Amino acid sequence: MGAKTINLTLKIWRQKKSDAAGNFETYDVPNVPTDVSFLEMLDMLNERLEAEGQEPVAFDHDCREGICGMCGAMVNGQAHGPESGSTLCQTHMRTFKDGDTLVIEPWSANAFPVLKDLVVDRSAFDHIVATGGYVSVRTGSAPDANEIPIPKVDADTAMDAAACIGCGACVAACPNASAMLFVSAKVSHLAHLPQGKVEAKERVRAMVDTMDSLGFGNCSNARECEAACPKEISVEHIAKLNREFASALF
Amino acid sequence: MSTNGTVLDSKIPAGPLADKWDQHKFNLKLVNPANKRKFNIIVVGTGLAGASAAATLGELGYNVKSFCVQDSPRRAHSIAAQGGINAAKNYQNDGDSIWRLFYDTVKGGDFRAREANVYRLAQVSVNIIDQCAAQGVPFAREYGGLLANRSFGGAQVSRTFYARGQTGQQLLLGAYSAMSRMIGAGKIEMHARTEMLDLVVVDGKARGIISRNLVTGKIERHVADAVLLCTGGYGNAYYLSTNAMASNVTAAYRAHKRGAFFANPCYVQVHPTCIPVHGDSQSKLTLMSESLRNDGRVWVPKAKGDKRHPNDIPDSERYYYLEERYPSFGNLVPRDVASRNAKLVCDDGLGVGETGYAVYLDFRDAIARDGEPVIEQKYGNLFEMYEKITGENPYKEPMRIYPAVHYSMGGLWVDYNLMSNLPGLFVLGEANFSDHGANRLGASALMQGLADGYFVIPATLGGYLATEKLDPVTTDHESFKATENETTERINKLLAVNGSRTVDSFHKELGKVMWDKVGIARNKEGLEQARKEIKAIREEFWQNVKVNGESEDFNLSLEKAGRVADFLEFTELMAHDALLREESCGCHLREEYQTEEGEAKRNDDDFCYAAVWEHNGVGKEWTMHKEDLTFENVELTQRSYK
Ligand SMILES: Cc1cc2nc3c(=O)[nH]c(=O)nc-3n(C[C@H](O)[C@H](O)[C@H](O)COP(=O)(O)OP(=O)(O)OC[C@H]3O[C@@H](n4cnc5c(N)ncnc54)[C@H](O)[C@@H]3O)c2cc1C
Ligand code: FES
C-alpha cells in the first residue's frame, strides 16, 4: 500500500437542527491518503474543525465495515458515493482523484427528516417492521430446527433478501422516495421460508399499509434503488412483493 | 493488594452438573402471569443479549423499556459478527455432544470460567438454533434442505451454524424482529439514540438509570424493578479494535462505580485474522472471519526481509509456522495461540508488508484443491471485503493479516442467575464475565448472548422478582435527583475544560499505551509503567481536552468525551488486574510465566480464581474479592494443541 495522497474540496450540507435552515459549507481537505476510507477522510476534517473550536460535521456511522447500515450520504448525487455495491464506510479514497470536488448531502425524503447535518431520522423503517416484519414465534416454542427441511434454493433466495442492512439508500436514490425495496426485501425473505408463510398475507398488507401511511412515495419502476443498494438487493423482490400483495387481497 | 476476603456467593445450584439447570429452574419461584405486567424492566442494549431478553420478557408479559445508542435496535454491534454460532446439535454425527461442547469451552477458556455456567450454555445451545430457525433466520443449508455446519475456531467437530459470512446480522435481525413484534404489541417501549449515563441505586438495589437523549441532549430518569445491562464489550479501550465505533464501557463502568464488582478486566481477546493497520488516520480494524483458517494456510518467509512477491516464494522457503509448531491442530489452533505466534514471528523479523507486522493467509492450495467456485461459495463476501479495503485480490495473492483486539472476556461479575452483587442489576452477553474464562472460542459469543437473553434471564429474573420485596419507588426519589445532578455536573465539567486537544487524540494516545503494554504479551515492568501513563493521560485530559458545542444538542464530541473519560479510568484497572495475575492463562500472556516451549504457563495453585474488583474512588486502590473456581467434573490440564 503506497503513501499516495490527494487534495479535495468538500461542499457539505450543514444544518443545526430539524427545524433550522441548512446551507452548503465549503472545506478544503488536503493530503488525504488514498488508503483511508471515506469516513476516515471526514474524521480528518472533523479533527481539524474540533481543534479550531468549530462543531464537527455530524454523520452517522458505527461498524465501519458495511454491515450495520448506520452510515450513508449522497456524494455528488449518488447514494453511498460512486462505488457500486458499497456503503460509504467501505468506500476508500482511492476511488477519487486529486483535485476532485465532492458535494455531500444527507438522504432526502419526507419520511427521513434531517436531524443534523448529514444525520437523518430513519425510525420509519422500524415502524414498518414492527407492524409485520417478523414470524410470531414465542421463545421456547420452536420445533427442532431440522424438522422442517427447506430447499437450498429457497434458503439462498431468502438469504439474498435478508442481506438488507436497512440503510435507506434505496429511499434516498428513488425519485419518489419509495421504500419498496426495503419492504420487499423483508416480505420476500420471509415469504420464501415455510416459517414465514403462515402469516404471509397479513404481513404484506400491514407492512405496505404502514409504509404508505409514513409518507414514502410510490414505486414507479425507476430501479434506482437496486443500483444504489450497497447489498445489491434485486428489484425481483419488489415483483415478489407485488405478487404476495395481490394474493393477499383475496 | 488489598483483599478483604469477602466470599462471593455464585449461587451455583447443588447436584450433578447435568441436572443443575433443570433443578434450579424448578426451584426458582415463579411470577404469577397476571402479575408480570406489574413489573417494569429496563434493558440497556439491543445486541443479541439485549434484543433477545427484551423480546422474551415482553412475550412473558413484563413491561420493558429498551435503550440503545444507535438510531435503531437493529444496528447493535452484534450485527458485525461473521463466522457463526455453536450448538451441540451433533447433526453431523461427528461425535459432538453437550458434554463435548462444555469441555471444549472450559478448556478453551484455559480453566478460568465457571464450570456450571459453561455447562448450562452448552445445554441451551441446542434450543437457540431451533428458536432462530423458527424466526426465519436463513441459516446455510445442504442440498437436502437440512442445516449445514462447519468447524470453527479450534474445534475438531463441525458444530458451527452460519448464514454466509453474516451470521451475527441474521441472528440479530431475528432477535430484532421478535423485539419489533413486542414493540408493535406495546410491550416494549424503545428508546433509540439514548445513552445510559448512570445507574440509580435505591436502598442498595438497582432501580433505574439516568440517560441522555443523543439528539436533544435531554437528561432523563427511568425507574424500574430491575435493570439489565446488555451493553457489550470494552475492546475500544485500545482505540483500534474490531468493535464498532460506539462500543464502550460506560454503562458497565458507571454501574461499577455505583458498587457493581468488575471481574477479570485484563482478559481481552486479540483476534488473529484482521486486516493490518495502514496508517495514522485509521479509525478501526476489520476482522476477517477466522473460518478462513479452515482453508487458508498461514505462513511467513523463512528468510528475514524477503521482499519477493509472495507468489514468487517457493514452498521450501515458506515457514508454515502454525502447521509446524502445532501439527495436530495446525492452522486451527485457538485464537490466543494463533495471535501470540503471529506476534512472535513478526518480532523475530519475519513479518511481511510495509510495516513488517503482518503474516500471509494463503488460499492458493485450497483453490487448487477445490476450485475457485467452491472457495467463492464459502468466503466470497469476505474476499470481496478484503479487496475493497486493501485493493488486493485474495484469489490471486495471499491475504495479509495481523491480530487485533476483538472481544472482552472480562466484565461485570454475576452469579449463576446473571445477577451482579447489586441486587436487581443483571448483566448479560459480552458485558458480563461468566462463560469464557481467559479465552473465548470462536462462535461462542453469539451463543452466549442468545442463551442469556432467550433462556436464562426469563427464568432467573422471575426468581428475583418473586422473592425480593421491592418498595414502590418513583423518579422523584432522592437517589434519582442526586444521580441526575452528578450526571449533569460531569457533562458541564467536560464542556468547561475548553483546552486545546481533541477527544480522539487522547483516545489514540491511550490506545497505544494499552496495545504496547497491556496487549498480546505483558510483563511487570510494562504494566506498572502503563498504570502511570494512563494516570498521566487522564490528568491531562481533564486539564486540556476540548469539547465543542452545548449539552442540549446533538453533540458528537460530548458523546465521545464521556466514553473516553470512562476508558481513562477503567484501563487503569485492566492494567492493575493484569499486573496481579502472575501467571499466563488464555489470552493473558505474562512474559515471566511461560513454558520452555514458549507456551502459556498457568498457575492453578495460586490463581485458579476470578479476580473481582470493588471500586473505592478514582485514583484509589481497588479491593479484590476472589471467586475460587472449582472444577468437579473436568481435570485441569495444560492445554496442548501440538
Ligand atoms: C467483527 C466481529 C465479528 C464477530 N464474529 C463473531 C462470530 O462469528 N461468532 C461469535 O460467536 N461471536 C462473534 N463476535 C463477538 C460477538 O459479536 C459479540 O461478542 C456479541 O455480539 C456481543 O453481543 P452483546 O449483545 O453482548 O452486545 P452488543 O451487540 O455489542 O450490543 C451492545 C448494545 O448496547 C448498547 N449500548 C452500549 N452502551 C450503551 C449505553 N451506555 N447506553 C445505552 N445503550 C448502550 C448498544 O447500543 C448496543 O445496542 C464478533 C465480534 C466482532 C467485533
Ligand atoms: S458504518 Fe456500518 S454500514 Fe457503514
Q: What does it look like?
A:
The complex is a heterodimer of chains A (250) and B (642). Chain A is of the alpha+beta class and 250 residues long. Chain A folds into two domains: 5-115, Roll (Ubiquitin-like (UB roll)), CATH 3.10.20; 122-248, Alpha-helical ferredoxin (Fumarate Reductase Iron-sulfur Protein, Chain B, domain 2), CATH 1.10.1060.10. Helix content of chain A is 34%, strand content 15%. Chain A has helices at residues 38-51, 123-130, 152-162, 169-173, 180-191, 194-197, 200-213, 224-228, 236-248; strands at 5-15, 22-33, 74-75, 78-79, 101-105, 114-116, 119-120. In chain A, the strands form two sheets. Chain A has a five-stranded mixed β-sheet with strand order 2-1-5-3-4. A two-stranded antiparallel sheet of chain A has the order 6-7. In chain A, strand 1 and strand 2 form a beta hairpin. The model of chain A has no long low-confidence stretch (mean pLDDT 96). Chain B is of the alpha/beta class. Among the domains of chain B are: 271-400, Succinate dehydrogenase/fumarate reductase flavoprotein, catalytic domain (Flavocytochrome C3, Chain A, domain 1), CATH 3.90.700; 483-608, Methane Monooxygenase Hydroxylase, Chain G, domain 1. In chain B, 37% of the residues lie in helices and 15% in strands. Chain B contains 17 helices and 22 strands. Chain B has helices at residues 20-27, 33-36, 48-60, 98-108, 115-135, 167-184, 250-257, 321-325, 335-347, 364-370, 372-390, 445-467, 478-497, 503-517, 524-544, 556-580, 604-607, and strands at 2-3, 40-44, 63-67, 85-86, 160-161, 188-191, 194-202, 205-213, 219-223, 226-229, 262-263, 268-274, 297-301, 318-319, 359-362, 399-408, 411-412, 425-427, 521-522, 589-590, 609-614, 623-628. In chain B, the strands form six sheets. Chain B has a five-stranded mixed β-sheet with strand order 1-22-21-11-17. A five-stranded parallel β-sheet of chain B has the order 6-3-2-10-18. The two termini of chain B are 37 Å apart. The model of chain B has no long low-confidence stretch (mean pLDDT 95). Chains A and B meet through helix 1, helix 2 and helix 3 of A and helix 3, helix 5, helix 6, helix 11 and helix 12 of B. The complex binds flavin-adenine dinucleotide and FE2/S2 (inorganic) cluster. Residues 44-50, 67-70, 76-78, 80-85, 167-168, 195-196, 230-233, 242-243, 247-248, 250-251, 287, 406-407, 429-431, 443-446, 449 of chain B line the site of flavin-adenine dinucleotide. The site of FE2/S2 (inorganic) cluster (FES) has 12 residues of chain A, from loops.
